[in-house]
Amino acid sequence: MRKFWNWVKNENMRTLYLDGYIAQESWFDDEISPKQFKSELYAANGDISIFLNSPGGDVFAASQIYTMLKEYPGIVTVKIDGIAASAASVIAMAADYVLLSPVAMMMIHNPATAVFGEAIDLKGAIDMLCEVKESIINAYQQKTTLSRAKISHMMDAETWFSANKAVELGFADKIMYTDTEGTSDLQTFMFDKVTVTNALIQKMPKAKIIPPQVAGVPIEQLNKRLELIKH
After folding, report:
1. What are phi and psi of 98, to 5 degrees?
2. Alpha carbon distance, N-terminus to C-terminus of the chain
3. Distance (Å, rounded) from C-alpha 164 to C-alpha 188?
4. Domain range holding 62?
5. N or C, where is the chain less crowded by C-beta within 10 Å?
């Protein structure tokens, strides 16, 4: 079975490499992945170092990994060497120490899913996503001590952090290859999809916007069909 993790035994400690899409093959469709990950995690004791580079993936798989790392008796250090986005950022919150490479990034956003069915099915999916979001906020708030409202707004906007900004907001503890927790000479920035879109629109030359021709059913015909359904 293909795994998205790999353990390496070093002289001083074990190193875990989480690289790629979380639950790339399977995680909660079967019990092999969670059990195998846990068995490898507890195959030895002592402190562990985790190199994390992932665009995210299955939030429930990330939740299980988060809890396993929280329960692990040794010191857990996460080193984000590329990107920790979406569900991967949740995993990072389980560490005792979170370090970012100066060129690494973090991203948080709202959970998403695909659903098909009647109105009650759609409502059920909305309620589920709202609860999943609250559980994710729990992990972020415990690490950062930011307010739930601020974290929620950042998730709504799909927010990206530079390494320095992640330290400033409390999502990380230190920038790798530096002697201090935060260095003023490193660029600090945070941006979201709305800000980027508005900035691009402002830079575009003004032009006459011609509304597209939308193909569809006229409202009059829809009303007639609704009337037929009533009878």
Report:
1. -115, 120
2. 56
3. 5
4. 5-209
5. C
- Is the pTM for the entire model greater than 0.85? no
Residue 5 · residue 17 · CB < 8 Å: yes
d(CA 158, CA 133): 13
Q: What tokens does 53 get?
A: 């580079």
- DSSP letter for 45, please: -
Q: Which amino acid is at 165?
A: K
Rounded-to-integer distance, Cα 39 and Cα 191, Å: 39
What is the spatial distance between Cα 167 and Cα 204, in angstroms, rounded to a whole number? 34
Number of domains in the chain: 1
The three-state DSSP-derived secondary structure of 178-210 is CCCCCCCCCCCCEEEHHHHHHHHHHHCCCCCCC
| Most distant pair of Cα atoms in the chain: their distance | 79
CATH number (domain holding residue 90): 3.90.226.10
The model's confidence at residue 189, banded by pLDDT at 50, 70 and 90, is: low
> How many whole angstroms separate alpha carbon 129 and alpha carbon 123?
10
pLDDT in tens, 12-38: 789 999 999 998 888 877 778 999 999
Q: Does a structural domain hold residue 214?
A: no
